[in-house]
Specification:
heterodimer; A: alpha+beta; 11 strands; globular; B: Rossmann fold; seven-stranded mixed β-sheet
């Protein structure tokens, strides 16, 4: 039985990339998106994978750094608190996620003599257990897509104001109220997901139809590819594809993280944590 | 041994429409504009269209409506992309009266209708702009109803209003009623071209703005066309 659990705990693969947009590049700027992933081995043998992508606010001086900090601490929080978050009231989870991100950003901001608003960023986060259960938190632009029973489904769509340049940030005073928290426990089409994608608005513009909520077929292909191929190779391909295909349709920074159950367990590296 | 590569096909992506920037030009076409002012105004509008069309992002984003007001208010073009419009219609003097409030009301009605179309079609849009230009005083009382309407929208962050006076006879106190945030500016002479050049640059900046980004207008550039 232990062997079975072990195999289950090794089943998730993750790749992701953040690519600077042509607009920032032309202005000599930097990529203001960031993404992170962590894996946690639980005592019962499960591995929980946490992933978070963030888009730093272009209007702020340190949104890029806020995106890196928030993605790291939120991915870790979701992975560390997976079972509790599945059971706890949604309000508690929203409060915890907002607090952990703001606390981490505030520490850095105070050292720099800045306000946390200077580090404003959106947040799109997911943690998934080896048994297919998941939790997701989302604030602002970007989206999360999941594969359930072979069907791609938009779990969380962009959350923004009336106008195109109005969105919500984790550093907002009322960010708790605007975080959307969902989990497999409350999902209506079954608990187990087999693949997920998280992305910022630079990618969302070509992966989700804002009107119909349809998800682009390209995502099914990419997630299937990840399930079948080596993470390192897919990571290289993903960066190349974001630059050559996705960036033809936007001048914005692009971040895309793919999570898929491995079809070949030997492909999975369970130790690595990373922040980009 | 060579490996297989993941290749995404463009036809497997979904292309959402470009975010729109709706701009209403609400222009005085009363008899007093006849002659050089109207010629300069039309030249300025042409330049505005050309400048927007020259910028790839703004060309896909900007949607312009032109409402002319004199004895009555009339929509010369409704909100649409400049690719579809081509050249702007020529604004012509229609009569001796100045139904300024009627023009503003018509522009706002068209704007509301367009916003509903955006929402229905899933098109994202930026804060709309209203440019109001007149060289005199209103001859109807409609502005008493139209001005609170623009101010209410402005207070709610739903509209950016640019009230512009043309020439010494423009009643700036009436124009001031249309915005609580932006005082009316009087055009230097007939510097329509300078104004519309400034406006097109501002539209380009907005069309390129990102979520959370507050677009600051080029205040220095205003000196090129406004009496300060």
């Amino acid at each position: 039985m232990g062997g079975t659990v072990m195999v289950q705990s090794l089943c998730w693969k993750v790749v992701g990339v953040s690519v600077i947009g042509t607009q920032h590049m032309a202005a000599g700027g930097r990529c203001e998106d960031g993404w992170s992933t962590v894996r946690r081995r639980y005592p019962d043998g499960r591995t929980i994978l946490g992933v978070c992508v963030c888009d730093g606010a272009g209007s702020t001086s340190h949104g890029w750094l806020g995106a890196q900090i928030a993605s790291r601490v939120v991915a870790a929080w979701l992975a560390d608190n997976f079972d509790g978050a599945l059971a706890d009231p949604v309000e508690d989870n929203r409060w915890s996620i907002s607090s952990v991100a703001k606390r981490a950003i505030r520490r850095v901001a105070e050292k720099a003599g800045l306000s946390i608003k200077d580090y404003a960023c959106t947040m799109v986060a997911l943690a998934v257990s080896s048994d297919g259960r998941w939790i997701a938190a989302h604030l602002g632009d970007g989206a999360i897509v999941g594969m359930f029973d072979g069907c791609l489904r938009l779990i969380s769509s962009p959350r923004k104001g009336e106008f195109a340049n109005e969105t919500y940030f984790i550093t907002d005073q009322d960010s708790v109220e605007n975080i959307e928290f969902q989990s497999s426990a409350g999902f209506d089409i079954g608990e187990q997901g087999t693949a997920f994608a998280l992305f910022t608005d630079g990618v969302e513009v070509t992966l989700v139809n804002r009107h119909t909520r349809e998800v682009a077929p390209a995502l099914r292909y990419m997630l299937g590819w990840l399930a079948d191929h080596d993470e390192g190779e897919v990571a290289q391909d993903l960066e190349e594809q974001v630059k050559s295909v996705f960036q033809q349709h936007t001048s914005d920074d692009c971040t895309l993280a793919l999570v898929a159950k491995a079809n070949h367990q030997s492909d999975v590296d369970i130790i690595s944590d990373s922040t980009r | 041994m060579s490996r297989e590569f993941m290749r995404v096909r463009t036809e497997d992506l979904l292309l959402n429409p470009t975010n729109r920037v709706p701009i209403a030009l609400c222009l005085d076409a009363s008899g007093s504009m006849n002659g050089a002012p109207m010629e300069e105004l039309n030249d300025g509008v042409c330049l505005f269209f050309e400048a927007i069309q020259a910028d790839p992002i703004a060309r896909a984003s900007a949607e312009v409506a032109i409402v002319a007001f004199s004895d009555t208010a009339e929509t010369l073009i409704d909100f649409q992309g400049l690719d579809r419009v081509g050249n702007p219609p020529t604004v012509m003097c229609q009569g001796g009266c100045t139904d300024l409030g009627g023009g503003v009301n018509l522009a706002l009605d068209r704007l509301e209708a367009r916003k509903q179309e955006y929402q229905k079609a899933g098109v994202d849009y930026f804060q709309p702009w209203l440019v109001l230009m007149t060289d005199g005083q209103p001859t109807t009382q409609e502005h008493m109803q139209a001005a609170p309407r623009t101010c209410k929208m402005e207070r709610a962050g739903k509209l950016v209003v640019f009230p512009i006076g043309i020439g010494p006879a423009a009643d700036m106190s009436i124009l001031a009623m249309f915005s609580e945030k932006r005082r009316p500016l009087r055009l230097q002479g007939l510097n329509f071209r300078e104004f519309f050049e400034w406006l097109s640059k501002s539209v380009v900046r907005v069309s390129q703005s990102r979520p959370g980004e507050k677009v600051n207008l080029d205040l220095e550039g205003i000196k090129g066309w406004a009496e300060l």
